[in-house]
Design brief:
Blueprint (H helix, E strand, L loop, with lengths): L2 H8 L3 E4 L8 E2 L10 E3 L12 H6 L4 E5 L13 E5 L2 H12 L8 E6 L4 H14 L4 E4 L3 E4 L2 E4 L7 H13 L4 E5 L2 H5 L10 E4 L7 H4 L2 H13 L6 E5 L3 H9 L3 E6 L7 E9 L2 E6 L2 E5 L4 H16 L4 H10 L11
Parallel strand pairs: 2-3, 3-4, 4-5, 6-10, 6-11, 7-10, 11-12, 12-13, 13-14
Antiparallel strand pairs: 1-5, 7-8, 8-9, 14-15, 15-16
């Protein structure tokens, strides 16, 4: 593929000097650069990609992309094309998506974000979608998986190049839905494009990751990126018992779907009948459910998944049967 095609399709870069070269791949890690590849030098929070340009060229990079403000720091050897971009992180996401064939267009992407409950919600969604006849994949804290393939997760949300390649692989394998745990770090670092998601779930927000975000307001603002930039026809599923969930309602785009246990105005209102060491009996909008999952926090997790699945038309009986037998998530309050 020609560099000029990528420039036209993404609109995020321009040639400073060099030729319209053939491009084979993109990388933000110089160690993973392939012959005729593009290396995007991201200036990170703890490291600077500019330091690795020489290594990328040695490994076969024929195109180097740097931010406009850093052009004066870069010396590129003959035969290598230098490009500039306003935002290296956004450019990496756009270029990676384009080179991967825009896989999100072939998938129903579901983003799950919040401080607590993300992993459990992804497992519940995965089980129910499978039982309903779909072929879901999961990109989460514990593993990245689809079909019989399971890979241990390095980070909650992979970098944009790995994520887009993974989505492409899933699409080629016939995956229908991909459930992604979307961390605040990933949103801040533009590893994901909110407009690619067909649905987003907000579970809650409690004090965490302040070493990175500094304040709760910054933490909330990072989480809100997913909802502020959804497409208008996407689903926005929000816990309105949570104070930050109430704030998120006012910021979110897309079709709003709310859930809760305490707030009577929720679209999906939960009420528990019994919570024991054997499991829980509860209602959602007067429909009765049983589950082996324990505690009120898991009622909220189930509400998050149910609100989305019921909205998109998954059969109630399928959901009920899965919840009845669902036991636990690895590493999350397991029975001993």
């Amino acid at each position: 593929m020609k560099l000029s095609n990528i420039m036209k399709a993404t609109g995020c870069l321009k040639v400073v000097k060099g030729d319209d070269v053939d491009v084979s791949s993109v990388s933000i890690d110089s160690r993973l650069v392939k012959k005729n590849g593009v290396f995007i030098a991201i200036q990170g929070y703890s490291d600077n990609g500019l330091k690795y340009i020489d290594d990328a060229v040695r490994r076969g990079a024929k195109t180097i992309i740097v931010e406009e403000k850093s052009l004066h720091e870069v010396v590129i050897p003959k035969g290598v094309t230098l490009c500039s971009t306003h935002d290296s992180r956004e450019c990496a996401l756009l270029v990676a998506s384009y080179l991967a064939g825009k896989p999100s267009n072939k998938l129903f992407l579901i983003g799950v974000t919040g401080t607590n409950g993300k992993t459990t919600v992804t497992y519940i969604l995965e089980k129910i979608l499978t039982a309903a006849g779909y072929n879901p994949g999961v990109i989460g804290t514990i593993t990245y998986r689809y079909g019989s393939k399971v890979v241990k997760a390095d980070t909650t949300t992979p970098d944009p190049v790995n994520l887009q390649n993974m989505l492409s692989e899933m699409a080629e394998a016939g995956v229908t839905h991909v459930i992604i745990e979307v961390s605040s770090h990933a949103l801040e670092m533009k590893r994901v494009n909110p407009s690619e998601f067909r649905a987003a779930i907000f579970t809650n927000l409690t004090q965490d990751h302040l070493d990175f975000h500094g304040t709760m307001e910054n933490y909330f603002n990072a989480k809100s990126i997913l909802f502020r930039y959804l497409c208008n026809d996407a689903l926005s599923v929000i816990n309105i018992d949570d104070p930050y969930g109430k704030k998120m309602v006012g910021l979110s785009r897309g079709k709003l779907v709310t859930y809760g246990v305490e707030n009577g105005s929720a679209d999906y209102l939960g009420k528990y009948e019994s919570l024991t060491l054997e499991g829980s009996v509860f209602y959602i909008n007067s429909k009765k459910f049983r589950t082996k999952l324990l505690g009120v926090h898991n009622i909220y997790n189930i509400l998050a998944a149910y609100s989305l699945l019921d909205t998109v038309g998954v059969d109630h009986k399928v959901i009920s049967e899965v919840l009845k037998d669902f036991t636990n998530v690895p590493g999350r309050f397991e029975r001993v």
